[in-house]
Design brief:
With 253 residues, this protein is an alpha+beta fold. 31% of the residues lie in helices and 29% in strands. A hairpin with a 6-residue loop joins strand 8 and strand 9. The two termini are 24 Å apart. It is an enzyme of class 3 (hydrolase).
Amino acid sequence: MPPETVSKYAVRVGFRTDRGLVRPLNEDSLLVDDGIFAVCDGMGGHEAGEVASLMCARILGAGYREEPDVVTSQRLAEILDMADSEIRTAIGGSGGTTVSGLALIDDGAEGDGIQWCVFNVGDSRTYVMSEGKPLTQITRDHSQVQELVELGQLTQEQADVHPRRHVITRALGTGDTTEADMWLRPVTGGERYLVCSDGLSGEVHGETINEVLSVIPDPQTAADRLIQLAIESGGRDNISVIVLDVESTSNPE
């Protein structure tokens, strides 16, 4: 994808989704648009998960594009609420979807201007890699095992292999809790973001993901390699990856 200039920065993106080796359908959907990037991991029988994730990506993208110059974090939360409501209406709670990603927003705070808003519902993840620093998870999984880790009842190593590690506690379109967690971050040149479904994070060790993102400069090549590694590790779930690079440009502020 060609660079999309954002003020004094440019964004380069690589992305891919794959059914994997076991699942009959790919119930993941990707949103890669001007200023907003997200992974939606659907769940539910009879293709309900596929419908839920696709609706989420479409509604989120359309809502963001309506007023691309004035989107705030509050408006982004409202669009996610809209997606939740429309998915429930369409499939009656028989399916749902995670969503994780980042969007350029402007909350109007003096001196802050355009920022990234990282958002998350469920156990898809958004990470960041700053220059000279390892890959760091920004989002918090909404899952049963994550709650046990935070209570001190499981170590992270135990959580990674726990039989209920894929049971989530929050999703759009189903369940009682759908509110998105959000984090605001400055737009900084030299940063690399990874957005992925648990088909990647559940198959490929974090150190391996970090190594790939450290040594492969092209975001599309990096995304393709991560998908390949997840498939080689078993490909037991659908796999979706977005790799996003923020690059400084010579454009004046």
